[in-house]
């Protein structure tokens, strides 16, 4: 399958897909051992200049959790989620090394004495964030950084892994380069109330609702991205929910269906430009808990 066909199956409008966007309800205490969380604990919120999504995930009835993509400004909201739900992280996972996804990762990893997991191809971005950004992005990062970035005390690399078990959660790990050399997809089996979904995939900036990750930044490669879309993303089942690095959730079924008839020329142009992560106007997302299971929803985070 060529790049145009791959794009045809992936591009879709960014509308609510799996469940209606829930109301943000008053914050209440929720015991993680409660049967109300019989399927999965999933909290998400967007922070920072680029409104990158951060996720906190825990197995049912387990006081340990995993933090995914602790980006710029995510630390206060992460702490709030952990405190409110009596959770303690066992690791911080990075879908890739861009600043908006790892800026607070070292802070959280060191605070809780846990490792930060990242692919080796992106590890240099933990200390040299400008190396993966446009000149404009690098200038903005220089403005917001109060001190040089440093690796946490404990760093582990995804290289060679196909699975990783942390906090009783078994993640699949799939190298998915193109947006960056070290981008990965992180997957979890899911048993929830939505019968159409049996897999959750944290897709980082590889694929979004209605778009794919840009490849014009340092470390990006449109040909490699096209291969990733063809060989990795399109291999995901229709029953996989995609939780991207920016914007709303989507599903593989929706991404295959919605734009199947879009003209190939427009698709090719979009794939080549690969508009994605750092485009302006991304909606600010409230935090949602167990959004696939129809569970409780609470508001966290800070307005920017």
Task: Using the coordinates above, name the CATH class.
Answer: Alpha Beta
CATH superfamily: Ribonuclease Z/Hydroxyacylglutathione hydrolase-like
Form type: globular
Strand order of the largest sheet: 6-5-4-3-2-1-15
% residues in beta strands: 15-25%
Can you characterise this structure?
The structure is a single chain. The chain has 304 residues and is of the alpha/beta class. It has one domain: Ribonuclease Z/Hydroxyacylglutathione hydrolase-like (Metallo-beta-lactamase, Chain A, 4-Layer Sandwich), CATH 3.60.15.10. It is 22% helix and 22% strand. The chain has helices at 3-10, 75-84, 99-102, 105-111, 135-144, 222-233, 252-258, 264-273, and strands at residues 41-47, 52-58, 64-68, 88-93, 116-118, 155-157, 163-166, 169-175, 184-189, 199-204, 207-208, 211-212, 240-244, 250-251, 288-289. It has a 7-stranded mixed beta sheet, with helices on one face. Helix 1 packs across helix 8 (264-273). The protein is globular.
Looking at this protein, list some descriptive labels:
disordered N terminus, Metallo-beta-lactamase, Chain A, about 300 residues, alpha/beta, 15 strands, 8 helices, six-stranded mixed beta sheet
What's the short version?
The chain has 304 residues and is an alpha/beta fold.
What topology emerges from the helices and strands here?
Layout: H1 3-10, E1 41-47, E2 52-58, E3 64-68, H2 75-84, E4 88-93, H3 99-102, H4 105-111, E5 116-118, H5 135-144, E6 155-157, E7 163-166, E8 169-175, E9 184-189, E10 199-204, E11 207-208, E12 211-212, H6 222-233, E13 240-244, E14 250-251, H7 252-258, H8 264-273, E15 288-289
Parallel strand pairs: 3-4, 4-5, 5-6, 10-13
Antiparallel strand pairs: 1-2, 1-15, 2-3, 7-8, 8-9, 9-10, 11-12, 13-14
Helix pairs in contact: 1-6, 1-8
